[in-house]
Design brief:
The protein has about 300 residues and is an alpha/beta fold. The protein is built from 13 helices and 14 strands. The strands form 5 sheets. Strands 4-3-5-14-6 form a 5-stranded mixed β-sheet.
Length: about 300
């Protein structure tokens, strides 16, 4: 006999990629995860999980079960909300800058969605095909399978440094624009080499800055933001984030070739779920309201040196 608790654990392993992270997410022990999934395998007469050196992976049989399992999760959420109307959860995955944008807007989102709890996480390459979340904010093309994609808006970037950094390493500027010498004279706060495909890293490469020693490298935008604030070096940040920050000084105009599209993806099989639609619509409205801030409408674009 199939148990919903076992199906939920299968979904947790699918989204987290390991028993340890799934156990942490669900608040159970590793032994419980293993025992309940073995019971599920016996119930279905099929192997569902393969152990690998880099974690646990679902077998093709388990992958085929994910859509039905996710529908069960949505149905369980509906039942829970019917019994306890004040509680509903929607999982959102986003890149760092989009996740921060949602966090900075939580009060308005909470006011518009009073009965929905947002579970916000970040991941550079979220995969809806593995049912890791109900809603994904990204500029990537949809994953395979039935996915709905909608555009939200555009996010502009500029070069920033802290006021402390400016005092310690004076920068020769033409107005508010860095000179060619400035680009190469001072260290940059950058992503690690594994993230060289990021638009910001490609921007630095196009300008011949790979030979400039990085102050430090990080694998998270959150870390980059804090390092720039702390005066470690120059950094590329979204203008909506940099402009209101009193610790930062903008050293360029909006960089047109670094502005990127942001949209959302959702599993088409959940498109009629009313709470998910409500969250998607409110996030769309938020991006529309903040369009000028996201684009740095008051900042003049610059032609880079």
């Amino acid at each position: 006999m199939l148990r919903w608790d076992d199906i939920r654990l299968l979904l947790a392993v699918a989204s987290q990629g390991s028993y340890a992270r799934a156990a942490q997410q669900e608040g159970v022990s590793l032994a419980t995860i293993g025992r309940r999934l073995r019971v599920l395998e016996r119930s279905l007469g099929a192997t569902l999980i393969e152990r690998r050196s880099d974690g646990h992976r679902l077998t093709p049989k388990a992958e085929a079960l994910l859509p039905a399992a996710s529908r069960m999760a949505a149905a369980a959420g509906d039942l829970h909300a019917s019994v306890e109307p004040g509680h509903a959860e929607i999982r959102i995955l986003a890149r760092e800058w989009e996740a921060l944008f949602l966090i900075r807007s939580l009060r308005s989102l909470r006011a518009a969605l009073p009965n929905i709890e947002l579970l916000i996480g970040y991941k550079h390459w979220p995969d809806l095909g593995r049912w890791e979340a109900e809603l994904v904010l990204t500029d990537h093309a949809p994953t395979d399978g039935p996915v709905i994609a909608r555009k939200l808006g555009r996010m502009a970037f500029a070069v920033y440094a802290s006021h402390d950094f400016m005092q310690q390493a004076p920068i020769q500027q033409t107005g508010q624009v860095l000179t060619e010498d400035d680009y190469h004279r001072h260290p940059w706060v950058r992503f690690t080499p594994a993230h060289r495909y990021f638009a910001s890293e490609q921007w630095l490469t196009r300008r011949g800055l790979d030979g400039v020693p990085a102050a430090h490298r990080f694998d998270s935008g959150f870390m980059i933001l804090e390092a720039v604030r702390d005066g470690v070096g120059l950094g590329l940040l979204p203008v909506w984030l940099g402009e209101p920050d009193p610790s930062l000084r903008r050293l360029s105009g909006v960089l047109p070739d670094l502005t990127h599209e942001t949209g959302y993806l959702m599993n088409a099989e959940l498109r009629r779920e009313p709470r998910l639609r409500a969250v998607a619509e409110e996030i769309s409205a938020l991006f529309r309201r903040e369009r000028a801030s996201l684009l740095g409408a008051a900042i003049r674009p610059t032609t880079d040196p």
